[in-house]
Amino acid sequence: MPDPDASPAGKIYESQFAEPAERLEAYADLAAIVKQLRRDCPWDREQTHESVKHLLIEEAYEVVAAIDHGDWDELAEELGDVLLHVLFHAVIAEEGGRFTLADVIEAETDKLVRRHPHVFGDAATGDADAVAASWEEIKQREKNGEAEEASVLDGVPAQLPALLRAQRVQEKAAGVGFEFPDRDEAWDKVQEELGEFREAVADDRSPERRQDEFGDLLFALVNYARYTDVTPENALRETTDRFTRRFQDVESRLSGQGTSIDEADLAELRRLWRDAKTREE
């Protein structure tokens, strides 16, 4: 009797994970629509990789917002917008004879298989941390053969938000053993950098020096966060969201009293802030 989970002929994955025909047709329809838009829509026809690259970043942030809101209908819609941009860039590249969407998919498929030897090969399965370390080791071995990417850190985009970029740079360095042996030493570094920043402020050092020292402090805090399983980008975003909600609550309460936030005294603002914080908690 045939094994229902056996891999389809010539495939590395199990048959239960194969996409049904109707889903493949839905993808094919979307790809065809994007190609027709490039031919028939004046706006779509004029776009280039450069002209729409910022929109892809915007759509990615809207995906994050949907996740933060726990709105799954919104998430499905925003993921569709990201998929549209992937298709759009692939179609532009195909028109220029550079690559096709099939090239993109095949390259990603090959990469996923190579970097998961514990799933598609004979390597032993470790815990999540071991898998992440293995991924970085395999990636670095691949990069060693590429002259233009000689550094472990070359794969971290400079365009990432600053906190996220710092985290990814530190993760890459840690992946090859360049990190503090434990979180206590990482915290010592935070305290050292805090002292240097306070000294730069107290001594009225130049703005450039104060900025450098503050940057060092932030970098050290991001590094310590890694040891505590905190994602700095998410943490600061959530804190900013909380501040925004509470500040707007204070504004609303004052408006209900017939005054504005710039007319209230500090004692009243602090009382309303404590009230807003208590109601939220």
UniProtKB/TrEMBL annotation:
Family per record: Belongs to the nucleoside triphosphate pyrophosphohydrolase family.
Official protein name in the record: Nucleoside triphosphate pyrophosphohydrolase
Superkingdom as given in the UniProt entry: Bacteria
GO MF annotation list: ATP diphosphatase activity
Enzyme Commission (EC) number: 3.6.1.8
Pfam families from the UniProt entry: MazG (PF03819)
Record field: catalytic activity: ATP + H2O = AMP + diphosphate + H(+)
Lineage: Bacteria, Pseudomonadati, Rhodothermota, Rhodothermia, Rhodothermales
